[in-house]
Amino acid sequence: MKTILRFIQEQLKDFYPDSEIKSLGFLMLESVCKMDKSSVLRCKDKQLSLKEQLMVEEIIADLKKHHPIQYILGKTEFYGLVFQVDENVLIPRPETEELVERIIREEKSKTDCKLLDIGTGSGCIAITLAKRLAGAKVFALDISDKALNVAKLNAIKNQVDVHFFHYDILSNEPFPFSFHKFDCIVSNPPYITLKEKTALAKNVLDYEPHQALFVPNDNPLLFYERIAGFALDRLSKGGSLYFETNSLYGQDVARALEKKNFQSVELFKDISGNDRIIIAKL
């Protein structure tokens, strides 16, 4: 293990910071050797087989192209659960775990809670809520059929029941569940303006789905406005709306919700100190 870790460090030193290379090394060895991190650390003298060495070299070649490690391995961890990911879905971020933590804290005391996740992607939010909130009935929509296929596989993998369905929240098509009111609506929608593209890392810009990332420069609140209007009609009385936001527009989203007569609008910072999570009550 010591030898291969040194090899990984040497190969990637011109592409990634040292701290990131260490993390990448453990991730690839855990996957290739079918071991957890503690086992990798314990088995310092373990020699990789030729097949395992070749697999590591293939992963390194992809990493040099800035291919995200999560897509290379086909999986990632989110809130203690393992999710399948590919180029059809965004890679779940730690900031979204903070959003999920807020929802669990706020909604855990409710019984027979009906939740809707708008723009579910990999299903990480919906599936985690279904796993952690006992008795919750969870629905999740996305415009991408390919993303929905990934989300459905993740629900099976994590042994939860989530009702996934195709719907374009920006369209005027009838919502398929006319009889439903939801106690909680959550969304981590596209919120990066096109002018912010240059600030994105190459592994994000070149590989993650642009449909799930970008909004027009002249309408950064496009999804928030639309979803808020939808929530006015679809939230039950006293229901909650949760958003993850672009830190540049958190205050603007909060003001927009207040103008639509949402109550108790709160904007929270993430662990890095950026405006990130909004909670509003109907």
Please supply descriptive tags for the structure shown above:
single chain, 282 residues, alpha/beta, 2 domains, seven-stranded mixed sheet, two-stranded antiparallel ribbon, 11 helices, 41% helix
Tell me about this structure:
The chain has 11 helices and 11 strands. The protein has 2 domains: 64 residues; 192 residues, Vaccinia Virus protein VP39 (Rossmann fold, 3-Layer(aba) Sandwich), CATH 3.40.50.150. By secondary structure, the chain is of the alpha/beta class. It has a 7-stranded mixed β-sheet with strand order 5-4-3-6-9-11-10, with helices on both faces. A two-stranded antiparallel ribbon has the order 1-2. Helices cover 41% and strands 21% of the residues. The longest helix is centred in the N-terminal third of the chain and has 16 residues. The radius of gyration is 20 Å and the shape is globular. The mean pLDDT is 94.
Give the arrangement of secondary structure elements.
Layout: H1 2-12, H2 18-33, H3 37-42, H4 50-64, H5 69-73, E1 75-78, E2 81-84, H6 94-107, E3 114-118, H7 124-132, E4 137-142, H8 145-157, E5 162-166, E6 182-187, E7 192-193, H9 202-205, E8 214-215, H10 222-234, E9 235-244, H11 250-259, E10 263-269, E11 275-281
Parallel strand pairs: 3-4, 3-6, 4-5, 6-9, 7-8
Antiparallel strand pairs: 1-2, 9-11, 10-11
Quick recap of the structure?
With 282 residues, the chain is an alpha/beta fold. The chain has helices spanning 2-12, 18-33, 37-42, 50-64, 69-73, 94-107, 124-132, 145-157, 202-205, 222-234, 250-259; strands spanning 75-78, 81-84, 114-118, 137-142, 162-166, 182-187, 192-193, 214-215, 235-244, 263-269, 275-281.
